Amino acid sequence: MVGMDLSDLKFDAIGLIPAVVCDHETNEVLMVGYMNAESFSATVETGHATFWSRSRQKLWVKGETSGHFQNVKWIRLDCDGDCLLIGVDQVGAACHVGYRTCFYRELRDGQWQVIYEQVFDPKQTYG
After folding, report:
1. Which pairs count as long-range contacts for 5-9, CB under 8 Å and 24+ apart, including other chains?
2. Could you give all domains of the chain from N- to C-terminal order, each with its CATH number?
3. Is 95 helix (H, G, I), strand (E, B) or coil?
4. How far apart are CA 28 and CA 77, in angstroms?
5. CA distance 79 to 68
6. Tell me: the pLDDT tens digits for 36-64?
7. Percent composition of the chain: helix, strand, coil (DSSP 3-state, to 5)
8. CB-neighbour burial class of residue 40 (10 A; exposed 0-12, middle 13-18, buried 19+)
9. Rg of the Cα atoms in the chain
10. pTM score, two decimals?
11. How far out from the chain centre does Cα 100 lie?
């Protein structure tokens, strides 16, 4: 969106803002990613969650490889303007290791335990 006003967004020193992604109906947290101004604008324009990959140093659309897209239903900004909450309709799984949510482990009795079933096999999806 050309000329979009991003002045309410407080990007950090390297130009990123954290984006917590949740199911738009249940508010279940699916993942956390980072956006820069370009990926935020692409998300608004396309309706597909688009992030800045800190490891690859490039834009990526969630689902571009796996087909597990995040169709954006709403975007909210926190009171400080430095964190986004994005409600999505998640196609398939959000987690690249095969779970619906990246938060599939829970600390129980001092040990991390997997509390969800895998939705897909990442070896078959990513090779």
Report:
1. 6/37, 6/40, 6/41, 8/77, 8/81, 9/37, 9/40, 9/77, 9/81, 9/82, 9/84
2. 17-96 (3.10.20.810)
3. coil
4. 17
5. 30
6. 999 999 999 999 999 999 999 999 999 99
7. 10, 40, 50
8. buried
9. 15
10. 0.92
11. 12
